Amino acid sequence: MKFLAVDDEPYALKDLLEALTETFPDDEVKGFTCAQGAMDYVGEAKVDVAFLDIEMGYMDGIILAKNLKDIQPDIHIIFVTSHEKYAVDAFAIHANGYLLKPVYPEEIRNELEFIYGEKMAGSQKEVRIQTFGGFRVFVNEQPITFRRSKSKELLAYLVDRRGADITTREACAVLWEDKNYDNSLKNYFQSIVHDLRQTLRQAGIEDIMIKKRNSFAILPDKFECDSYLFLKGDVRAVNSYRHDYMNSYSWSEFTIGLFEEKIK
Question: Looking at the predicted structure, is the pLDDT value of residue 121 above 50?
Fold first, then answer.
């Protein structure tokens, strides 16, 4: 597939291009900061989906979308903006989607799945997460390696939450119990999140985690997990428990208590 991204703010365009590339690393992604460049490109190349900012310079995204559809009537348009107020205008020209900045890969994938009515091509790998006897992640039964221990711990905590959202503040409080929540810590945490997402992407399993505007979660239906099976009463999972759930992390004590209650 071919994707087009247009935003007159270079940094915003860079973020959008990174999100698109992370979502579909094997597809072609082209970015422009000016509407004319985008129209020239669409006039020469078949584009499947255009992601357009709305508030731009001399030509806003609504007008640009109309022009692109004049050139390629079957092009799909998804608007990307910081403002909800444009939603009515966007759908008046039969836009296919409307995303608020910042945009994340899972949101992009969801929009395209809605457009095409089926799951987009993505990871079909078998993912297994082990929480008993140490935290480990396996892809097709091969363990993945984490570059940073805090990236691994963040994923472990998300698995412990079993799909519930956690905020940046909450994650920082869990990962660094003795540190004040300030800009320095928030910036460091963002580097941990980036590192984790890169690790998952390289393993081809980035879709197990969803990042929202100020929260994070894992998607439990994307992998098999021994502790999840335990809670469902799976006999093999129950028999494999040796009072050693997430034994490297102090925050696991609450869940350990839950397991201990179940085996009494």
Answer: no
Sign of the torsion formed by the C-alpha atoms of 12, 107, 199 and 49: negative
Q: Strand 136-139 to strand 142-143: parallel, antiparallel, or no bridges (unpaired)?
A: antiparallel
C-alpha closest to that of 8 among 60, 49, 46: 60
Q: If we measure between CA atoms, which residue out of 156, 128, 132, 129 comes closest to residue 243? A: 132
Beta bridge partners of residue 28, listed in sequence order: 2
Give the tens place of pLDDT for each residue, 30-51: 999 999 999 999 999 889 999 9
- Output the pTM of the full model: 0.57
Q: How many residues does the chain have?
A: 264
Domains of the chain: 2-116 (3.40.50.2300), 127-262 (1.10.10.10)
